[in-house]
Amino acid sequence: RGGKGVCGDGGERVIKQIAFTASLAGARIKSMKMRRERVKALVDIIILTLSAVGIFYGCVWYSGATVASDTLFWLRMRQAVSIPGQLLTVTDDSGAEAVIPAVTYRYEFKGQTLIGSRAVVHQDAVNVQDFPRSEFPWALRQRLQNAYERKTEVTIYVNPDSPTMSTLDRSFHWYGVSGPLLMFVFGVAMV
Fold first, then answer.
1. Which H or E element spans position 7?
2. How far apart are CA 167 and CA 176, in angstroms?
3. What is the gyration radius of the CA atoms in the chain, in angstroms?
4. d(Cα 161, Cα 77) in Å, to the nearest integer?
5. Do 94 and 83 contact (CB within 8 A), yes or no?
6. How far apart are CA 60 and CA 181, in angstroms?
7. Among 139, 167, 171, 141, which residue's Cα sits nearest to residue 155?
């Protein structure tokens, strides 16, 4: 047989075909693994992008809604009239972070007895304890607590066009928009 393998030429051809088929299968497996890795990377990118977009829109929505709502309330309260009223409740049940307590108060406007619960224009923004004790939120908190304990009248600001719209303080303060605006900047930075 002249030095040919045990299987002869046919056997070598079969072995080469098997080796070729195995290399094709290996290439396919490698290709499938690479595709799987690319798909996984693409899914990761999509998830991160959607998360960033979600955080962005959450921050923008929160900040935009908060600033817009509070600013609109403040603008409508610029024409408010001041009237005397009585605090019904002053509670600090919102936890240690609250500076402005939750309040309810009664007032009469044009023969109608009404109940209000808004202490300040920027209701959510003042619930931080980073203010020095002499600044507005702490001073208002102390004033509300003293008036409630002594049962003295408080000044209530009422929108004459919408008497159910009332507040105990109608001032527009920088901190009322600083938190939401920082959230907006954070949201933009995420994208």
1. none
2. 15
3. 35
4. 10
5. no
6. 9
7. 167
Residue 44, φ and ψ in degrees, nearest 5: -60, -45
In this model, does residue 109 exceed pLDDT 80?
Answer: yes
pLDDT for 44: 83
Helices 8-77 and 175-190: angle between axes, nearest 10 degrees: 160
This model's pTM is above 0.85: no
What is the distance between the alpha carbons of residues 2 and 16, in angstroms, rounded to a whole number? 20
Structural contact between residues 120 and 100, judged by C-beta atoms closer than 8 angstroms: yes
Please give the structure tokens belonging to residue 105.
């108060």
**How far apart, in whole angstroms, are the C-alpha atoms of residue 132 and residue 139?**
10
CB 137 within 8 A of CB 186: no
Residue type, 173: H
In this predicted structure, the answer to whether residue 126 has a pLDDT above a threshold of 90 is no
Backbone φ, ψ for residue 113 (5° rounding):
-90, 125
> Which residues have a Cβ under 8 Å from the Cβ of 96 and sit 6 or more positions away?
129
User: Per DSSP, what are the bridge partners of residue 158?
Assistant: 81, 166
Q: What confidence score (pLDDT) does residue 132 get?
A: 47
- For 98, the token pair is 């609250």
- Amino acid present at 8: G
Which two structure tokens, joined as six digits, stand for 190? 């995420």
Three-state secondary-structure class, residue 27: helix
